[in-house]
């Protein structure tokens, strides 16, 4: 009976440790989804509602909530990593960096600037700079941590590596898309604002505005759905790998 109890205790401890190792990855996958949603939905709001006074507080509220979700997920992952034995400095360093970037984004989002404040453009530029680093460090953690699990468990999951590579490619496309929008933001907003000045009799302006709005909305939604789907695929693959 003593031997049986020791076996069950050892197996339960091992399963708990494996669950902890997977849950922190799940939290970082959610963090990647929150970052993507925060940025792409902000782009959609700016394209659909171009007037500064009407969309400023909506964007501000959404960015605050999105930053809080990012902070919560990365902080949960950091706590789970600290509960693991032994501790790994690379994992903790990457998650701490992600947590710090998320906190910086939250601080920028809560700054009490009105819609006509001169520092709004600088704040948005700072958020645009934080976005790619947030994604890159999160993706780096996923690659390093999943590689460590595969080496530890002795599993060769090519499908999981393909999903990770696909997610990295989509993140690269997201960063490129964000840079393009940032560089052409003023021109795009001017096109959309022209529509509000000429409701009728300017068919060309209306068509051009509709094309811009639809393009920004569709591409942003595709990127957001892509990151979400790949993150879910990574989570499912990890649980299947643990089960085997």
UniProtKB/TrEMBL annotation:
Highest taxon of the lineage: Eukaryota
Keywords: Membrane, Transmembrane, Transmembrane helix
Name listed for the protein in its UniProt record: Uncharacterized protein
Bilayer-spanning residue ranges: 62-83, 90-113, 160-180, 222-241
